[in-house]
Write a structure and sequence with these properties.
Length: 425
């Protein structure tokens, strides 16, 4: 077993300890807020026009009436946590596709602005909303960062992903991106590498487009993640996932994007200028997630909302939040989680860590091992990922998020069969 595989296995082991929610969901309120400071808010919109085979996010087929009702519930949930004293300054709308109903999205943004001092708003979208929709109202409503799920510009891969028909060819997506360049403070594109049938030439072409042919501010280049339970459908559509070329592809991405003037914000996010990035878990240790299938991390505990949209509606319409799971992390796991997220952003500030945990961060065995394998270097006040460490962190975070995706799959299986069949998830 090589070192990369070993690191992946260690994270899988760590996940098993950390990401274990109870088998039977039941209503679990969020803790009282610390009213002295604002929080980051994540809002999940689970509706999509097309359900892509590689995707493990919580998403269901778009139906206008169901999505309209869902947005109403979400606003009611926002009101509830606001009434409890939670304050928010930064908002991420993720999905699914938050722009499936732009009017409802804007009404939700207006509610947030009326109750909170919101500085930054990030919204995920898909290429068809760029091509066919008018995004100016989003900009006028205060959206500062637009994140577009592109995945690849290669038509063969887009067809395998079942995205070509609905979201357009690589050329059409590229033209749509060119049209909105400069409209938002930050325009991010989400890409994926290491598809089973992706060639080095195909990845080089994607990088050439991002480096020289279009103007985007940020690129988040995720490694393809496999998840138990999804692997068969993914394999049927796209081929068998393997990791033998992952490092080579990652090194190519880093080389081409850094050459083109991007800087690295996290192991897999690259920006041309400062701004928000998807890995808000690096910048903000605690966050509140609302909406069906969202996660929160507060006071050392992970919370999850129900993955049943029907159940979510029932909870919210009866005056509760949708939270049904809670996992308390022991101090050691909280420190490991902190270390993993900080180093994902490239550096760990030792003094900030000591302040956060009321003394020494500890974890000397972990740090010694990471130094011995050449993954981190000690810069006195900070620990820093080496180039070798950057790829190892890609492996770690790929396995960490695969663990979160496994948890999502598990939660979906706690739903009654009827709800799963009806897509009422
Ligand atoms: S990749 Fe995006 S559009 Fe496709 S199913 Fe997942 S969330 Fe929806």
């Amino acid at each position: 077993m090589n070192l990369d595989t070993l690191i992946g296995k260690l994270v899988q082991y760590f996940n098993k300890e950390m990401l274990q929610f109870p088998e039977r969901p039941s209503y679990t309120p969020l803790p009282d807020p610390d009213t002295s400071r604002p929080y980051l808010l994540y809002l999940h919109i689970p509706y999509c026009q097309v359900l892509c085979p590689f995707c493990s996010f919580h998403r269901v087929q778009f139906k206008e009436s169901a999505a309209t009702r869902y947005f109403r519930c979400l606003r009611s949930e926002i009101e509830q946590v606001s009434d409890r004293g939670y304050r928010f300054d930064e908002v991420y709308f993720g999905g699914g596709t938050p722009t499936v109903l732009p009017g409802e999205l804007i009404e939700t943004i207006e509610l947030l602005k009326s109750r909170h001092g919101i500085n930054t708003i990030s919204v995920e979208t898909n290429p068809d909303d760029l091509r066919n929709g008018d995004l100016r109202p989003l900009k006028e409503a205060g959206v500062s960062r637009l994140s577009v799920g592109v995945q690849s510009f290669d038509d063969t891969l887009l067809k395998e992903m079942d995205r070509y028909e609905k979201y357009g060819s690589g050329d059409q997506v590229r033209e749509a991106l060119e049209r909105i360049a400069g409209c938002f403070d930050t325009l991010n594109v989400d890409m994926i590498f290491n598809f089973p049938h992706q060639t080095r030439e195909s990845l080089e072409r994607d990088l050439e487009i991002l480096a020289r042919e279009i103007v985007v501010d940020q690129v988040s280049f995720y490694p393809l993640m496999n998840v138990d339970g999804k692997d068969k459908s993914l394999e049927r559509a796209m081929g068998k996932v393997g990791y033998s070329r992952e490092r080579e592809f990652y090194e190519l991405i880093v080389e081409r994007l850094l050459d083109a003037g991007y800087t690295r914000n996290s192991a897999w996010c690259f920006s041309r200028k400062p701004g928000m990035f998807d890995e808000y878990i690096v910048d903000r240790e605690e966050y509140v997630g609302l909406g069906s299938g969202s996660f929160s991390y507060l006071r050392g505990s992970l919370y999850s909302s129900t993955f049943s949209i029907g159940e979510y509606r029932r909870y919210v319409e009866s005056g509760k939040t949708g939270t049904v799971f809670r996992q308390d992390l022991n101090t050691r796991d909280q420190k490991r989680y902190y270390m993993m997220m900080e180093l994902f952003g490239g550096t760990l500030d030792k003094r900030a860590a000591a302040k956060r945990f009321g003394g020494d961060l500890g974890l000397w065995r972990e740090f010694t091992a990471l130094q011995m394998i050449g993954a981190i270097r000690d810069r006195g006040d900070t620990l820093e990922l080496t180039e070798r460490g950057q790829y190892l962190w890609v492996v770690m975070m790929r396995e960490f998020f695969a663990g979160v995706n496994r948890l999502r799959e598990k939660m979906r299986h706690t739903l009654p069969d009827a709800a799963r069949r009806a897509g009422d998830m």
